[in-house]
Amino acid sequence: MTGDTHSLGGSNTDLTIYYDGSCPLCRAEIDHYRGCRGADRLAFVDVGRDASAALGEGLDRRAALARFHVRDPQGRLVSGAAAFARLWRVLPNWRWLGRIVEFRILGFRPILPVAEVAYRLFLPFRPWFARLFVRLRRG
Length: 139
What we know:
Blueprint lengths: L14 E5 L4 H11 L7 E5 L14 H6 L2 E3 L5 E3 H11 L4 H8 L8 H12 L3 H13 L1
Parallel strand pairs: 1-2
Antiparallel strand pairs: 1-3, 3-4
């Protein structure tokens, strides 16, 4: 797949993925997902390199750059670990991980809060990991 779609969903779109394309780490991760089976059901919106990207209700560019967000066909916006779980559920080879994160027992999702804490702990270090990623790729 080449290029980003700026639609907020469509008949063949299960999720709209908002990502920071100016972050090399984020871009590499999204490039991986684009190459996965099932990625044809995803719309990708690069909010990092396209300041005019259509984000839809409830999401501004600053928030979209600060956390990972996805929007389902009904327009519901999800962020953080829950957004990753939703993304993974669409991709057949990642579905198992999405199911683990979203696993419910007695109406409670025990894994999701732990995954969200891990995600929030990672966020302040994302710029450092991005710089490290660039250095490692350069060799």
